[in-house]
Amino acid sequence: MKMNWGTKLVIGMGLFMAFIITLAVLMIRSDSDDLVDQDYYQKGIEYDKDYARKSQMQKDQAEPEISIGDSLRIIFKKPATGSVRFLHPSDNKNDRTVSLNSGTANEIVLPLTDIANGHWKLIIEWKSEGKEYMFEKNITID
User: Fold this and answer.
1) Do 86 and 110 contact (CB within 8 A), yes or no?
2) What transmembrane ranges does the database entry give (predicted)?
């Protein structure tokens, strides 16, 4: 069957309209809007606190030294207590939180045996000498 250019144009436009209608139906049927958080106000307040902790870390030059091998080694400038969060970018079911307390030492060693290989976002929140700090870094565990 031989078609002229007008028939091909009409078929192409019809396929394009069907594609757009399919996308519109899928969009309307979706349950959630991932661009807006349900608790956006609370997250905004938390962002301000996080920004203040990061600024305090830079002001006091309290950035910890991080080294990764068979374990995660964190060296603080002064003794600290807090938590370390491992956030997996593709699956939040793999996220881990570990409490830390360096005692009188400035160093903490965390085994990485239960952490899967791959890319992670490392978030360290700690308190030292009455001041709160926060450090974020993207890491790769092999």
Assistant:
1) no
2) 9-28
Q: Shortest CA distance to 88 belongs to which of 117, 130, 60, 66?
A: 117
Show Cβ contacts of residue 64 under 8 Å, excluding neighbours closer than 6 positions. Answer: 74, 75, 76, 77, 124, 135
20-29 confidence digits (pLDDT tens)? 999 999 988 8
pTM equals: 0.70
Region label for 61, one of left (φ > 0), alpha (ψ between -120 and 50) or beta (otherwise): left
Sequential DSSP letters for 11-51: HHHHHHHHHHHHHHHHHHH-S--TTS-TTHHHHHHHHHHHH
Domains assigned to the chain: 49-141 (2.60.40.10)
The residue to which tokens 């969009």 are assigned: 27
Q: Which residues contact 96 (CB under 8 A, 6 or more apart)?
A: 85, 86, 114, 115
- Other CB atoms within a 10 A radius of the CB of residue 107 amount to 13
Structure tokens that stand for 122 in this block: 């490392």
